[in-house]
Amino acid sequence: MLGALMLAALTFNTAETAGTLSATGAFTGYTYVVTFLGDVSGFSPDAVSVLFVVFSVACLAGVSITGALLDRFPQSALVTAVATQAVGMLGLYAFGVHPVTTVMFLVLMGGALGPVFMTTQNAMLHYAPGRTDIALAANSGAYNAGIAAGAALGGLVLPLADVRSTFLAGGLLTVGSCVVLLGGQLPRGRRRSERSTRR
Known about the structure:
82% of the residues lie in helices and 0% in strands. By secondary structure, it is mostly helical.
């Protein structure tokens, strides 16, 4: 019994750590995406507004696709979402000076942003060692902490380098999230839907 609880805590902590790192990475760059699209990619303010619509549609599509596959492939969906975010951010850093590739990688990042939160929450509910309502709160808290930390980190990077570097830093943090997930090797576990929110 104790061993099972320790395993559950390990996998829960893996998911929480990966989620926090990925949120921090995402918002290290995303906080400054308007500046990036204007100064680096050369889009006009009107075009940037359109790109935000494209980003939102990509996020909705990513959530819809992930939701349809999450029950069948929970671990693969989580790793894929985080890896897609990393590719999108690093692609924006490397190829953001080209408008066409900027749109491509922005869509990848948008398509991953919602699914990362969703798949992380799913994993934390699966492997929560105690109450699932506390797991939900922990996931939301970790994500919000990541948003704040990402914005702060981007604010530190921006005056030292340039706005492109915020996406490099964010992409590397997201790669770190992938490493945590692959190193943690979340085991296949039974669904916890039957568990009450009370012990």
